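Quarterly update from the structural biology core.
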Amino acid sequence: MSTIFYQTLGFEVDFINSVQFSNHTGYGTWTGQVLHESELLELFSGLKKNDLHRNYTHILTGYARSSSFLEAVHSVISEIKTISPNAIYCEFFVYCLKMRLILPHSV
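Predicted structure, tokenized:
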């Protein structure tokens, strides 16, 4: 969702959706896909093969469904920060309609 916002501010955005859901999980039911750790690392590998990861100035992450996915995110961020130590990292927390934080208990 935030991709267009950052593009209008002049940022070049490479985005990877951690989830692709029909609607917010705060509703009773939803359908969709969840990106797994290996898929995240595979996508990041593709970015690295084209040296696209060398110019990042900002990293924004969103919903993470598990601690193992967060470990993969941490691996990606650590690699980017090694190359670009001034890259700014932000976590975009997900809230439901009742303004409570949405995180699995394992996270």
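Helices lie at 2-8, 37-49, 67-83.
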